[in-house]
Structure formats: structure tokens, C-alpha cells
Amino acid sequence: MKAIVQRVAQASVTVGGEQISSIGRGLCVLLGISLEDTQRELEHMVRKILNLRVFEDESGKHWSKSVMDKQYEVLCVSQFTLQCILKGNKPDYHMAMPTEQAECFYNNFLEQLRKAYKPELIKDGKFGAYMQVHIQNDGPVTIELESPAAAVDPKQLTKLEKQQQRKEKTRTKVPSESSRERNAPRNKDDPSASSGAEGDVSSEREP
């Protein structure tokens, strides 16, 4: 799971020309859900976002207070493109969680945020919609969060990863053409055999 967390003076989401959500000072969170994410990653991200110290305290000391400490708002927007893997210049999203599963997971994420904080201070966009997200970054301050990598079960490896592993194994087992040529036994009648190297010009010199 990946999140881009921005400290904002204000932020809002518009869908079809209509503003559907907005906040004042607080955090705008762009969340990318991976197909391998579980409840463990979800709970980790909720804790990190709510306890991230990106605000100043009463004396003006920076990096001292969290969004909960300041009682500010949080605007969450689901963004599967954070799970992008580039193939050349083309984005590939096979690591993003499929839409139906991701929507349920994202709603659970919002629910956990509201349980851990104040429900009325957690806002969100519209899952799966084409949105315009207006962010007035304050600072600017932008923090990238990523859930800890979990141990991957071989059964859960993607098809592409399995294919890549097979290719690597094949390369280590099959000798290259050049190595086969070097290791091949030479015929006694092969003129290059007596010279000790192919293309030895000494064997072609006139007496």
C-alpha cells in the first residue's frame, strides 16, 4: 500500500462539475492499494497517517504535531495509479488491487480512519469516478508512505513474476552459443586446431 500525504491549507474534490467534498487545514491523502495488501497493511497505514507529525505546535516549533493533535481534517482519495510499474514509457497497473475488491478495501480503510479519529473530520472523494482534486499544498510538504513489505508466499507470485523466474533459471542452465563452441572437441584435420587459435596468421605465412 502506498500513500502520498500532503499538508494542505485546503483541498477539495469535484466530480462532473460538482464539488462533492472539501476540507480546510489538514491532510490530503492519495491512496494506492496493492493486490497483496491485507488488514495488516491497512492498519499500519491508518496509524502512520494519523500520527504523522507535519504540523507546528503552539510555540511555532515545526514537525511537532499530528493531524489528530491539531484536530484538523483529512481528505482521502483512492488513486490506483500509485501502483504503476513502467514498461518502457507505458504505465502498467497489474499490481493494483482489482476494482471490486479495492472498493471494499478502501471503504474499510475509511472506516478504520473514522474509528481511530473523529468521523466528521474524515472526508473522501468518489471511488472509481473521474475526479478533479484541488490541492493547496501548505509548505509545500509532501510525504510518501509505504506499508512494510510482507513475506511473499510463492503461491501468490504473479504470473509475470513466475515467468521471469523461469527465464532466469533457463539462462543459468543453458550454455551460450559461444561457450558451446569453446568447449566443442576439435577435429585433428581442423587447421585452426594446430595453431591453437582461430585466425592465427602464422599458419598462413609463406616459407
TrEMBL record:
Q: Name one Pfam family in it.
A: Tyr_Deacylase
Q: What name does the UniProt record give this protein?
A: D-aminoacyl-tRNA deacylase
Region of interest (Disordered), residue spans: 153-207
Tell me which GO cellular component terms the UniProt record holds.
cytoplasm
What family is it from? Belongs to the DTD family.
Q: Which reaction does it catalyse?
A: glycyl-tRNA(Ala) + H2O = tRNA(Ala) + glycine + H(+); a D-aminoacyl-tRNA + H2O = a tRNA + a D-alpha-amino acid + H(+)
The listed locations are: Cytoplasm
Mark out the compositionally biased spans (Basic and acidic residues): 156-167, 178-191
Q: What Gene Ontology terms describe what this protein does at the molecular function level?
A: D-tyrosyl-tRNA(Tyr) deacylase activity; tRNA binding
Q: What is its EC number?
A: 3.1.1.96
- Please tell me where this protein is predominantly located: cytoplasm
Q: Which terms are listed as keywords in the entry? A: Cytoplasm, Hydrolase, RNA-binding, tRNA-binding
Alphabetical list of CDD domains matching this protein: Dtyr_deacylase
Q: Which organism is it from?
A: Pterocles burchelli
Q: Which PANTHER family match?
A: D-AMINOACYL-TRNA DEACYLASE 1, D-TYROSYL-TRNA TYR DEACYLASE
